[in-house]
Recover the amino acids of this structure.
């Protein structure tokens, strides 16, 4: 079987805009400081709100002392559970899979440290901050449950959004009984906090029962009815504006307590209210990545090919909600194996509830899978790349479906060549650089699914030749303002500069969720279809107009490009859009569109983006300080709309991989449950000096089945593969593997001492 | 007890009455003057999103009390372009894709302007990586940031601007 599809089933030709490395359409606004993020809004009469967070992780608030705050100059009100009205919808009710149970001062229970227990509202930000500091709480404290040794275990109903927690295929026992070798990787991954640079914020203003909200949001179409339900107003009364998000990474897709408190405060005060989280408040009510404790076991045949795979994951959630990272499902579709089993066990910690964080499930799971695969390669005495090719999956091993497209072999090849992988010594500990640092090379396979959401869009062509396209959409940095603009322009057959383009607010057609690496395909597909709908109507008019050179060409394929409609078979036969409309006396044509994925394709094919990441690390031989000196990734993700932006997404994801492997760890005190490193001094993410060389290569891939346009996602895949590549490089440098991420100096030192004794 | 201060920001004088000495330069810029290009990422000098120039030096505006800056010459991201013409650092950030979400970008750009002048436009790639490491970017746009600063430095030395 070949990796490249033989027939381009319904591959659509895009126009002259897509495929271009256009710079960001929102670039000018972002470099001049005029891009308006939620907290930049300052309506007249604005009040500032700062919430007081619980200082315990479990128990009850017996009493709140708010007098000192109320006396502070500028403070106008303190909201507590005693004086806060009930919401119209119980915030502990889950009405959709995207609804989180949230804390909006509706009870006196404390379920995690950092939960809002009061809100101070003041004329100035300084007064609100000081007022919040002056509120004191008396608690009835119950012991906090933090960590897998203390958390309460349970059998989950689902992991991720709604995936079954247990999966098995084939006879694991019999495959194992035929195996000749076995490896097992046991590793823990910590809580990780999204920490977008823009903290969650809201500016809310009521006008009677109409509400205007400035709030960064990845899923405007869900947020609008969600907010309306909490406040008992019709969805059409809510205007949500989110033109720019200062990062999201999954944490701005659902509604959270603090932002609902800001909206509630505005209603109570009958004045606009701004509430922006402090950085330390980002470590509680606004989600995080589950901690995991995983075992990945591969059983190998005499030929060292995988015979059986078992992936078990213990995964953390909160005491009051059920979101679990689906780590153990990361192993199901990546390598060929005869029999497999994946299972999850939930653990309740007294933390906020986790949620989707960049490459949910796959990031955590593949970090351990790629380690296990390298351990197997070591057992086989084979080069890790050669070994991955030995276990290459030509069909999805979890269901036998062919891949809609899979250019992973090319990714391996191009990535390895760019990295210089062929010179890698097989054994660890053999390479030193000119400074005497231990040097290691490691690799990992990247994979991420290619979902598709039902987005809608509208397009408009006017008599004067101007055009407009719109969908609610969301640009959280991935480049929606640009890539979607390019696709919309191609749908209409106009130059991007001639298009008036709008995304990022709730008055527009529902662009669905910017998440799951599906936004470009879904919202872009809808925009392209909306433009095509306009062109179809235009063609109808032209082919029935005796004065048009296209008269009677109704059975021919007509193409719109550059503001001109012409015959595909003879581009010279055609005319400008403006001529068609003016002759027909039509002011404007409106088109509507939805992106499309063929239902039969969904049932027939396994749909993923793929990639290969190669890492070089330098490790100090005495201190075990680790640096990632080089990262090269090669990725195949179908049709690339904007290579400049796609590369940025991929390198950004790879840097998240560096962060996962070496930096990030949300630490909660085991006695109190409080986060102990809830700032950027304690919660480490990479800085520029940590990532001297990161390079992403785009590998050509035509995917005729994934959707009409053959577009897959690039936003999340970069982190997958990278984490394992770094761990494997550390092993190659030192001969040591640790049992947890992030890989720490002390763990390497400990293992090195153990090795010597 | 109102405190009357005057701040020179982007060449323009702003007269302010503060109720006390608490407001930081960052909050004064954002909440009182309406220059919201300068961003708050951590409010404690750990992320660099609020970087502005004070008398040509880069500082974290979240750690500076506004009352301490009477008479200082403050430049924010809004004051960098020359009318319609972008500052070379701004142009280089667009062309090298030195940002994604854009939230840390004003701070990155102000930091880069300050850094390039600190090094008289002769910084090596390694010095850029070190010198720009006080500005966090959670999107991980670092490859573009490094290229942008390198490129801007070159443009500025060609224009004799650094």
């Amino acid at each position: 079987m070949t990796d490249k599809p033989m027939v381009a089933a319904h591959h659509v030709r895009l126009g002259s805009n897509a495929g271009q490395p256009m710079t960001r359409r929102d670039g000018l606004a972002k470099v001049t400081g005029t891009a308006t993020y939620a907290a930049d809004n300052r309506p007249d009469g604005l009040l500032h709100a700062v919430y007081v967070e619980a200082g315990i992780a479990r128990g009850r608030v017996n009493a709140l002392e708010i007098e000192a705050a109320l006396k502070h100059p500028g403070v106008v009100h303190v909201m507590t559970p005693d004086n806060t009205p009930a919401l119209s919808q119980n915030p502990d009710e889950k009405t959709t899979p995207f609804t989180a149970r949230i804390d909006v001062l509706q009870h006196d229970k404390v379920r995690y440290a950092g939960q809002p227990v009061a809100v101070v509202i003041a004329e100035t930000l300084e007064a609100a901050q000081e007022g919040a500091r002056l509120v004191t709480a008396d608690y009835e404290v119950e012991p906090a449950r933090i960590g897998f040794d203390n958390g309460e275990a349970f059998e989950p109903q689902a992991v991720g959004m709604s995936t079954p927690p247990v999966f098995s295929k084939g006879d694991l026992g019999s495959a194992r009984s035929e195996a000749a070798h076995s490896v097992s990787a046991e590793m823990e991954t910590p809580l990780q906090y999204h920490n977008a640079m823009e903290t969650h914020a809201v500016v809310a203003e009521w006008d009677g029962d109409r509400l205007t909200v400035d709030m960064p949001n990845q899923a405007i179409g869900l947020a609008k009815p969600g907010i309306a339900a909490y406040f008992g107003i019709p969805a059409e009364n809510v205007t949500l504006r989110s033109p720019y998000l200062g990062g999201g990474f999954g944490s701005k897709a659902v509604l959270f307590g603090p932002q609902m408190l800001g909206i509630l405060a505005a209603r109570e005060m009958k004045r606009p209210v701004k509430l922006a989280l402090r950085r330390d408040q980002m470590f509680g009510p606004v989600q995080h990545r589950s901690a995991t404790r995983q075992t990945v076991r591969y059983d190998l045949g005499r030929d060292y090919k995988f015979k059986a795979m078992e992936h078990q994951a213990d995964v953390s959630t909160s005491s009051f909600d059920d979101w679990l990272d689906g780590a153990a499902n990361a192993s199901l579709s990546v390598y060929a194996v005869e029999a497999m089993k994946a299972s999850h066990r939930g653990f309740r910690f007294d933390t906020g509830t986790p949620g989707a964080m960049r490459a949910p499930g796959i990031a955590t799971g593949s970090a351990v899978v790629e380690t296990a695969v390298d351990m197997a390669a070591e057992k086989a005495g084979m080069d890790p790349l050669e070994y991955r090719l030995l276990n290459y999956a030509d069909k999805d091993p979890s269901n036998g479906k062919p891949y809609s497209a899979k250019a992973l072999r090319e990714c391996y090849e191009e990535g390895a060549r760019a990295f210089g992988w062929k010179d890698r010594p097989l054994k660890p500990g053999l390479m030193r650089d000119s400074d005497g640092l231990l040097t290691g090379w490691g690799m990992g396979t990247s994979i991420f699914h290619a979902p598709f959401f039902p987005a809608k869009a509208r397009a408009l062509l006017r008599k004067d030749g101007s055009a407009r396209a719109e969908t609610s959409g969301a640009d959280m940095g991935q480049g929606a303002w640009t890539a979607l603009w390019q696709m919309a322009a191609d749908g209409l057959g106009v130059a991007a500069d001639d298009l008036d383009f709008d995304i990022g607010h709730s008055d527009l057609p529902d662009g669905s969720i910017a998440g799951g690496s599906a936004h470009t395909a879904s919202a872009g597909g809808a925009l392209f279809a909306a433009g095509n709908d306009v062109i179809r109507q235009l063609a109808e008019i032209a082919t029935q107009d005796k004065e048009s050179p296209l008269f009677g060409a109704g059975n021919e394929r007509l193409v719109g490009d550059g503001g001109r409609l012409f015959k595909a078979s003879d581009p010279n036969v055609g005319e400008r859009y403006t001529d068609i409309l003016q002759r027909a006396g039509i002011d404007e044509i409106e088109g509507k569109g939805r992106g499309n994925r063929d239902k039969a394709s969904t049932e027939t094919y396994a749909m993923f983006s793929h990639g290969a990441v190669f890492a070089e690390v330098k490790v100090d031989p005495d201190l075990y300080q680790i640096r990632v000196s080089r990262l090269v990734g090669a990725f195949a993700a179908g049709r690339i709309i904007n290579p400049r932006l796609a590369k940025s997404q991929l390198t950004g994801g790879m840097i998240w991989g560096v962060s996962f492997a070496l930096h990030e760890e949300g630490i909660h005190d085991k006695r109190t449950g409080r986060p102990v490193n809830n700032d950027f001094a304690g919660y480490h993410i990479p800085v520029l000096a940590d990532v001297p060389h990161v390079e992403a290569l785009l590998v050509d891939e035509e995917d005729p089945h994934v959707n009409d346009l053959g577009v897959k996602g690039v936003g999340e895949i970069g982190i997958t593969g990278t984490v394992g590549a770094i761990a494997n490089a550390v092993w190659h440098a030192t001969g040591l593997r640790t049992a947890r991420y992030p890989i720490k100096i002390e763990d390497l030192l400990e293992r090195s001492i153990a090795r010597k004794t | 007890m109102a405190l009357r201060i005057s701040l020179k920001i982007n060449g323009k004088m702003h007269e302010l009455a503060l109720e006390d000495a608490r407001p930081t330069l960052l909050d004064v810029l954002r909440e009182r003057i309406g220059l919201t290009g300068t961003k708050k990422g951590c409010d404690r000098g750990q992320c660099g999103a609020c970087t502005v120039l004070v008398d040509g030096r880069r500082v974290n505006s979240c750690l500076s009390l506004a009352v301490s800056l009477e008479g200082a010459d403050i430049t924010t991201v809004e004051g960098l372009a020359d009318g319609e013409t972008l500052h070379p650092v701004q142009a280089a950030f667009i062309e090298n894709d030195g940002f994604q979400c854009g939230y840390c970008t004003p701070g990155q750009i102000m930091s880069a302007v300050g850094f390039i002048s600190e090094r008289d436009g002769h910084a090596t790639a390694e010095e850029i990586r070190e010198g720009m490491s006080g500005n966090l970017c959670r999107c991980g746009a670092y490859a573009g940031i490094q290229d942008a600063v390198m490129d801007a430095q070159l443009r500025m030395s060609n224009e004799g601007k650094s």
Residues 736 and 748 of chain A are 7 Å apart (CA to CA). Residues 1-10 of chain A have pLDDT under 50 and may be disordered.
